[in-house]
């Protein structure tokens, strides 16, 4: 039955809860502060939700706590930092809470109240099971300011999950985590509350719990696949994804990294691979185009397919509960829709639009490739497509082509990347190559790269149009502190330098003129690569990258451009994309190996840094540290700082300036052009806002031993003598 709960605030500020059931003549009073029966310190603070049948109503109550009286005389204004602070002082704001808040369940039939959360470290984990049970999360922190991934924080007790009977108040332990890893991932109740399902991030399995019997079932034990996401992270260990439930809750549909599985939460029936393992065998990622919360069990599902080898994209269909029904509709060198891909894209995907029934059913898709501008197509079967729009603005220019490339890295593993060439490519010529990377870019092979200014990663069409080849390799990672593991610097070198040597074997690659560029995490990778690569690369550029994980570990990053408050980077270095897997005190040698600053004496490559003081992601001092290290060692390095931009060079004037300077920089080292005056002059503060110093300076020197400058100096001298 349909019902509505709402609160009314009295003149004095107290709340009362009221309930309206569909069809009733009036709303009915449920409960008020004075009728809680929990003591004078408790009062109603807000509503949560109903149970599935509407028998139980969940709401929150607060308990007033005594506040500390202020000192009678305030002698000074001082910040007090304490090692006991779960939230560091700069991230704290406002007055401390003088109350504790708890979830309460009220039986609307018999007015019985059950205090669900009894302690400050307990919270209601998800919706209701059946009508008489709920799941509690206990331990860890309830502080909303806490960075939840701070796995190292010494909480009073391990994080655990409990099944609570609302009728009896009895609790049954479901799971205690061996470490405070944040929480179980995706704790979820089936739509009608029959099952509790969760992803165990430690064991990498899906579990179901029957609240009636307390039976816990490992639904994915002994299945020949991994259901964990293949996105490289150390702590998250997130599942590939949950698709939905059968209407009768007899089965749940989940993804592995390639296929779709039907699992029985009771454990009585074996798991069924809906796509019959075709995805994993063919290295194809399948995802449902139109996902729903529930399924009848006999539907035909439209699937998006992405071939991880060829990078082709297309569509398949499969019928639930009908083995052998997987059918390919189309696959090709295009980008349609890729919900399975969790990495960066040029322009994202558009879910196909559909309308009509039977023979009149039609789909409209957005199709693109590296050589085809995004256009709308109509199809009656997703096999053949007719163009609705014919936009091709890039045809006016010397555009580009893309090619998926595979090679073997130094550690023996095969990696992939995308090589972009100019449309008028001539295999008899020699081309300089710029390598650009972050984590995974190869999936963009058949996406259309939009031309524009460089604001972070290099704009590929701009540089290809100017006669460069651009290669975007994937970076393959491992946890640095594991056997055979690599630091970010080592992993980036293993991926990028091996790609450079592989491509250098091609006759049209000018192996003496290779450059690298990355932004943010890719900036750290750039800084790290050049500490290992010797003179393999003629020039390097980075935007907003880390330069020293040790100082980054112990620094604060500004939360926004206005606030002076900061957040800590500990988790980011420990377990997020820095992937150290340990603290500097546990593995000091690893941190030193991964520090471009501490290894900058090994650098033999010029470096252009762009790092802005308003950066709210990577502390500006990281760029300064790298610059200062290079400067102290007498190595060629320039640093750009834009007053109106932050982590990304978003201001249009700044982006134009950076595009010009980056182009001049690479043109000098990779194409033999004269250096601009901003590279050959010093004491440049005077010229800020007055002269950009773009003028090329063939008589100047960017550094003492620059071969390009010497050649131009000689030409100038010859011209002068004439």
Short characterization:
This protein has eleven helices and 38 strands. With 722 residues, it is an alpha+beta fold.
Reconstruct the topology from this structure.
Elements: E1 3-9, E2 15-21, E3 28-32, E4 42-50, E5 56-64, E6 99-107, E7 113-115, E8 122-124, E9 133-138, E10 160-165, E11 171-176, E12 185-189, E13 196-200, E14 205-209, E15 216-218, E16 242-246, E17 252-255, E18 260-263, E19 272-273, H1 278-282, E20 284-288, E21 294-295, E22 300-307, E23 313-319, E24 327-332, E25 353-355, E26 362-369, E27 372-379, E28 386-387, E29 400-408, E30 414-422, E31 431-437, H2 460-465, E32 469-473, H3 488-503, E33 509-519, H4 521-529, E34 539-543, H5 549-553, E35 556-558, E36 566-568, H6 570-574, H7 588-593, E37 607-610, H8 620-632, E38 637-640, H9 652-671, H10 677-680, H11 707-721
Parallel strand pairs: 16-21, 31-32, 31-33, 33-34, 34-37, 37-38
Antiparallel strand pairs: 1-2, 2-3, 4-5, 5-6, 6-7, 8-9, 9-10, 10-11, 12-13, 13-14, 14-15, 16-17, 17-18, 18-19, 20-22, 22-23, 23-24, 25-26, 26-27, 27-28, 29-30, 30-32, 35-36
Helix pairs in contact: 3-4
Care to describe what's here?
It is a single chain. The chain is of the alpha+beta class. The protein has a domain at 394-673: Rossmann fold. It contains 11 helices and 38 strands. The chain is globular, with a radius of gyration of 30 Å.
Spatial sequence of strands, sheet with the most strands:
29-30-32-31-33-34-37-38
The description of the largest β-sheet is: 8 strands, mixed
Which descriptor suits the 3D outline? globular
Full CATH superfamily name of the domain at 394-673: Alpha/Beta hydrolase fold, catalytic domain
So how many helices?
A: 11
Named at the architecture level, the CATH assignment of the domain at 394-673 is 3-Layer(aba) Sandwich
What is the mean pLDDT? 88
Indicate the CATH topology of the domain at 394-673: Rossmann fold
Measured distance between first and last alpha carbons: 98 Å
Q: What is the CATH C-level name of the domain at 394-673?
A: Alpha Beta
Low-confidence stretches: 143-149
The total beta strand count reads 38
Indicate the radius of gyration in whole angstroms: 30 Å
Provide the helix percentage: 10-25%
Strand content: 25-35%
Q: What is the SS-derived class? A: alpha+beta
């Amino acid at each position: 039955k349909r019902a509505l709960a709402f609160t009314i605030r009295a003149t004095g500020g107290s709340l009362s809860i009221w309930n309206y059931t569909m069809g009733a003549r009036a709303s009915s009073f449920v409960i008020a502060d004075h009728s809680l029966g929990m003591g004078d310190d408790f009062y109603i603070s807000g509503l949560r939700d109903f149970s599935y049948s509407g028998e139980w109503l969940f709401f929150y109550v607060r308990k007033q706590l005594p506040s500390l009286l202020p000192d009678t005389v305030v002698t000074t204004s001082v910040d007090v930092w304490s090692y006991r602070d779960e939230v560091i002082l700069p991230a704290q704001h406002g007055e401390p809470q003088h109350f504790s808040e708890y979830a309460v369940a009220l039986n609307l039939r018999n007015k019985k109240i059950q205090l669900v959360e009894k302690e400050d470290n307990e919270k209601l984990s998800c919706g209701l099971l059946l009508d008489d049970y709920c799941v509690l999360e206990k331990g860890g922190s309830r502080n909303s300011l806490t960075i939840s991934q701070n796995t190292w924080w010494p909480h009073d007790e391990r994080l655990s999950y409990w099944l609570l009977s609302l009728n009896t108040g009895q609790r049954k332990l479901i799971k205690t985590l061996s470490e405070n890893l944040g929480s179980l991932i995706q704790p979820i109740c089936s739509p009608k509350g029959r099952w509790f399902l969760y992803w165990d991030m430690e064991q990498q399995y899906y579990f179901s719990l029957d609240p009636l019997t307390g039976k816990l079932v490992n639904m994915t034990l002994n299945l020949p696949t991994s259901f964990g996401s293949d996105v490289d992270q150390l702590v998250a260990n997130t599942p590939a994804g949950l698709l939905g439930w059968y209407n009768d809750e007899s089965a749940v549909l989940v993804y592995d990294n390639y296929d779709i599985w039907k699992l029985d939460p009771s454990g009585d029936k074996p798991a069924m691979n809906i796509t019959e393992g075709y995805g994993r065998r063919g290295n194809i990622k399948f995802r449902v185009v139109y996902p729903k919360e529930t399924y009848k069990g006999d539907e035909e599902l439209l699937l998006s397919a992405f071939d991880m080898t060829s990078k082709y994209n297309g569509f398949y269909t499969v019928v639930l509960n009908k083995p052998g029904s997987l059918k390919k509709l189309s696959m090709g060198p295009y980008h349609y829709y890729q919900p399975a891909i969790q990495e960066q894209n040029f322009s994202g995907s558009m879910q196909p639009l559909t309308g009509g029934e039977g023979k009149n059913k039609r789909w409209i898709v957005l199709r693109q490739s590296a050589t085809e501008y995004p256009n709308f197509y109509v199809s009656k079967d997703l096999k053949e497509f007719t163009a609705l729009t014919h936009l091709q603005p890039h045809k006016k220019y010397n555009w580009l082509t893309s090619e998926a490339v595979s090679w073997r890295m130094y550690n023996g593993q095969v990696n992939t990347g995308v090589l972009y060439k100019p449309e008028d490519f001539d295999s008899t010529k020699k081309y300089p190559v710029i390598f650009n990377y972050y984590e995974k870019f190869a999936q963009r092979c058949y996406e259309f790269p939009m031309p524009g200014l460089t604001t972070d990663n290099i704009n590929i069409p701009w540089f290809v149009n100017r006669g460069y080849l651009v290669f975007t390799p994937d970076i393959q990672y491992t946890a640095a502190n594991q056997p055979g593991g690599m630091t970010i610097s080592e992993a980036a070198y293993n991926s990028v330098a091996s790609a450079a040597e592989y491509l250098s074997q091609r006759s049209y690659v000018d192996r003496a003129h290779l450059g690298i560029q990355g932004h943010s995490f890719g900036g750290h990778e750039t800084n790290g690569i050049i500490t290992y690569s010797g003179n393999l690369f003629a020039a390097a550029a980075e935007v907003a990258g880390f330069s020293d994980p040790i100082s980054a570990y112990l620094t604060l990053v500004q939360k926004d451009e206005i606030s002076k408050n900061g957040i800590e980077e500990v988790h980011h270095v420990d377990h997020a994309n820095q992937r150290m897997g340990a603290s500097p005190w546990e593995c000091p040698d690893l941190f030193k190996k991964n520090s471009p600053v501490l290894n900058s004496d090994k650098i033999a490559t010029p470096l252009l840094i762009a790092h802005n003081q308003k950066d709210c992601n990577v502390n500006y001092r990281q760029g300064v540290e790298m610059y200062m290290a290079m400067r102290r060692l007498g190595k060629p390095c320039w640093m750009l700082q834009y007053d109106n931009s932050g982590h990304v060079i978003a201001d249009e004037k700044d982006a134009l300036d950076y595009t010009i300077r980056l182009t001049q920089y690479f043109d000098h080292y990779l194409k033999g052009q004269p250096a601009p005056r901003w590279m050959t002059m010093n004491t440049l503060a005077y010229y800020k806002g007055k002269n950009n110093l773009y003028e090329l300076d063939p008589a100047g020197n960017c550094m003492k031993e620059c071969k390009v400058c010497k050649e131009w100096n000689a030409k100038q001298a010859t011209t002068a003598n004439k």
